[in-house]
Amino acid sequence: VCITSPTVYIGTEGTNGCPIGYTTMTAAKCQEVAGSYWLGTYSIGDAPRGCWRMDGVTYGYNEHPTGGTNPTYEPVCDVPFVVSTATPSSTPTATPKATATSTPSPVPVPTATPEPTPTPRPTVVGAVPTSTATGTRTRTRTRTHTRSATPTAAPVPVAQSTRSSHTTGESGT
């Protein structure tokens, strides 16, 4: 396991102390970060508590119990330690997979046998079986696209009247 602190956090000018999630570094660490720009350790009330950077160039460390703010000073903070594996893995960590959920069956469930049972020949829609005097069955077709939805009756023959050819009223024999 390798423990590293990749960088330091430079705070905002005019603030006092490190923001939440960062820590105040030691004076020794502050001097290490500053290198040749190190000014020394102080106890002053108008500089950030802990490590600070002045005018973006020089570093110092304030031991004052509360510290303070100054428009030319920035707090310098430790970035929390990062714990990593000794050897990075080339394979990414597996992402959890969603489990399949069953879909409910459609309602209503279809019937096992279709209704009505199919006929061997095409069925004429609207055909009504009728009987005749001879006892044979015939079909009369009803047209659904006509004005009437009921079957029409066959025309009835009209009896012919007999006319007398005589105009005198005499009957001929």
Automatic annotation (TrEMBL):
Residues 105-121 have a biased composition (Pro residues). It comes from the Eukaryota. Residues 160-173 have a biased composition (Polar residues). Residues 86-104, 122-137, 147-159 have a biased composition (Low complexity). Residues 86-173 are annotated as: Disordered. This is Uncharacterized protein. It comes from Eutreptiella gymnastica.
